[in-house]
Amino acid sequence: MTDSAATGASGPQTKRQTGTRYAERLYLAWWGWPLPLIAAGLLAAEIHMGYPGVRSWLPYVVLVPATALIMVLLSRTRVAVADGELWVLKAHLPLEVVGEVDVVPAEGKRHALGPGLDRKAYVMHRGWVGPLLRVHLTDPEDPTPYWLFSTRHPERLKAALKGRSPGEPGTVEAGPGQAGTGE
């Protein structure tokens, strides 16, 4: 009943979001960019090591932009509740199979992602985002026991999953550029 491996470029970002209850982008903050870019520059300098020719410029042309591209791709992570489904990246889950929803605070991440993790669970973790949300599934045919994923606003997302109507406290109506589309 669930589709954890959605195909194509469909998702909350390309669908018409008339029924969006919650949406956020888990972008990498500005302070997360300098260290990887500096490391890419240092690695390029190690490869260059003063040699002339292609080896003098190719590492810089390849490694620094590749690092920036990887960081941009990591910053495109989206979490949304739209059109009766929970979307995490390209995976989606009908709200009818959403069971108990638990907030895992930043202090509990190590246990939730380590010894407390079921190997069949769907996991989407971003280290720069503090809390996690654990969404248990009620579909007996689905081998996935729960989804565990990062979110900056777990209480708002939990309220959106519980089906509160827009305008109630704890829910967020979000569209492009509106409040609730992430921080």
UniProtKB/TrEMBL annotation:
Superkingdom of the organism of origin: Bacteria
Keyword Transmembrane helix recorded: yes
Region feature Disordered, mapped onto this chain: 161-183
Pfam families, per database record: DUF3093
Membrane-traversing stretches: 26-45, 57-74
Alphabetically ordered keywords of this record: Membrane, Transmembrane, Transmembrane helix
Protein name: DUF3093 family protein
Upper lineage: Bacteria, Bacillati, Actinomycetota, Actinomycetes, Pseudonocardiales
